[in-house]
Amino acid sequence: MTEAELPRLEALGLVRRFPGGAGVHGIDLLVRPGEIHAIVGLNGAGKTTLMRLLLGMLRPQAGTARIDGIEIGEGPSSIWAGVGQLVEHPLAYSELDGRSNLIVAARLHGIERRTAGALVDRAIAEFDLARYSTVRASRLSLGNRQRLGLAAALQHDPALIVLDEPTNALDPAGVILLREALLRRAGAGAGILVSSHHLDEVARIADRITVVNAGRTIGSLDPAGVDLERAFFAMLHADDSEREEIA
Amino acid sequence: MNSGFRTAVAVEARKAAASRVMASITVLLVIGVAVLALGMLIAAGSSDELLLAKLGPLARLDGWAGLVGIVSQITSAGGLLAFGVALSWLYGREFSDGTVGGLFALPVRRSTIALAKLAVYLVWAIGAAVLLAAAVAILGLAFGYGATDASGAVELLRVPVLAILTALIAVPAAWAATLGRGLLPGIAATVVLLVLAQVMAVFGIGAWVPIVAPALWAIDPATVPIGSLAVVPTVPAVFGAFTALAWSRLQLDR
Description:
The complex is a heterodimer. By secondary structure, chain A is of the alpha/beta class. Chain A contains seven helices and ten strands. Chain A has helices spanning 47-54, 98-108, 113-126, 142-154, 172-187, 199-205, 228-246, and strands at residues 9-17, 23-31, 36-40, 62-67, 70-71, 83-86, 160-164, 191-196, 208-213, 216-221. In chain A, the strands form two sheets. Chain A has a six-stranded mixed beta sheet with strand order 6-7-8-3-9-10, sandwiched between helices. A four-stranded antiparallel beta sheet of chain A has the order 2-1-4-5, with helices on one face. In chain A, helix 2 (98-108) packs across helix 3 (113-126) and helix 2 (98-108) runs parallel beside helix 4 (142-154). By secondary structure, chain B is an all-alpha fold. Chain B has one domain. Chain B contains twelve helices and no strands. Chain B has helices spanning 3-18, 20-44, 49-55, 63-96, 110-142, 145-148, 158-169, 172-179, 183-202, 213-219, 226-230, 234-248. The longest helix of chain B is centred in the N-terminal third of the chain and has 34 residues, at 63-96. The interface between A and B is medium-sized, with 37 and 26 residues.
């Protein structure tokens, strides 16, 4: 396999069980360069746990995750320079203003001090954050904090992007900004994994939709298909019935 | 110094400098100790037997030695609380604010970020210690010690030394805030440290116990050998390492 064909992200048999039975029970997943791969599922299906496993926020009890072919627990920390992520809370420190938050995020992602300023200016323009660049994050609305967090995760043009419910709290303008930002980056070769329960939004941008239920992947939906919602619930229902029969 | 550490220090310094929490703690520490010391000085000058009994041997000291003695006692207790709260905030806020998730999947290691926080804390503590010494100097000059006890001014040096030693023994709060994922466990650990240090110091035991030595030195400098103060830095060394290890092994599993 040549380097160009390596998946940006690969999960093999990831397992992480929590007391009570929740968690992720053996998930395989691929995100290829230039691809937007959406994972959909109900609350508690294991989407966030899966993303945490892929980002090193949790250690798997079994299975591995690889970024550009390198196993995440074992590779050098430099493999993360090409990753942008937002899982749950945006990286927005309440005492810092919008611009300082973006500078901090850029520096932590390995951007040199002398180039961080220009990068941040570009992100402020791309995510329409100029009004908030001198406002402390503590004074921003939830939606604007999310927008700031997305800019912080995407501004360094990562080759792999992992976003958990990124449209949470965004206004319609923010949703469009995010959609365009993701399509632009996928067009430039980034691999993108995004979780959502907004099927309409996912259908607009995803190349592939994987359905997660009870900690497993149970199938995929065609983003171009009609009545995605019906197909989604039919798949969930069939999976739930099957598991009940086994139990 | 590698570039990851430099970056992490720059980031942590920026956060601390912008933070109202760190500024408030500095002001409370400096002004609080100065005001309490002023009150005790006035009490020491009174003829109230009960107050004089409470002040104990400090009431018999005059000039800079008396002032520094009072300030040292307040700093060894109140200062420890202030330093512990600062550490609890520096580490615990990442959990209570939810920003800890953003410190994963970065080319800068989390253990490096934890050590950078400690470096920023130590620099801040040195600054706070110098400010405290300056406030005490102003207080002493206002009481006329500049004229009446010029030779005793060397006692002032004990103030920043004690403040820094106290800052060093507060470092277990960083570890507690990390293990407990928030501010309160760090503050609770500080209170435990405070009680341990003060109780042992009052009984005059533990000159060679690093967390007790500064408080004992504050009460009665003659009973504490210099060598025992020199082992105080083992506390931040050991607990700084524990904290860095806890950050490197951190999982978002609760």
